[in-house]
Amino acid sequence: MTNDFPRSRETTSMTTGLPADFRAFHQLHRKAYIDRAMVYLGNHADAEEAVDAAFEQLLRCWPKVLTMENPAAYAWKVMKNRVIDLARARNRGPALLDNATFETAILQDAVDPIAVLEESLNLYQAIKKLPERQQDVVILLHCRGYRVAETATHLGITEAGVRSTARYARRRLQQLLAKEDR
Hints:
Family: Belongs to the sigma-70 factor family. ECF subfamily.
Helix content: over 70%
Radius of gyration: 18 Å
Protein name: Sigma-70 family RNA polymerase sigma factor
Largest sheet: none
Pfam families: Sigma70_r2, Sigma70_r4_2
Organism: Streptomyces malaysiensis subsp. samsunensis
Keywords: DNA-binding, Sigma factor, Transcription, Transcription regulation
């Protein structure tokens, strides 16, 4: 288990005697959860806070989580809800458009950085219009660089489900971007 979980004083006493399966789950998923939360919140500290809150919630009902058909899918939903809750509490919306376009390494080597920036802005606007599952797959696969198997593990779906969702997302993005070009 990483040293930075849980972070709050309230839960520090809970670190003693955490179930081994919970520690393993935490270690497997925390980085991906923070990566996804970062895209939404635009701030690493906020992402960690939301993800830690999600893991605290999961820990409180861990035996029940383990009896669920798909604990990873449930945990992903808990994490996303905590991220949304934190954004609302701070009167902020999704930061996908705000930070992702300006973190693009392509801008550094671009012949026409303004054109690349405009394309990036259009792409991130289109990603925001995708259905939730498609957004998650696109963000993990293409924005954060996870492999198909890793994405499937974190979302609690099959690899075939990730590939299929990515195909539908790509088609939808092409449609949305084609409308922008008109």
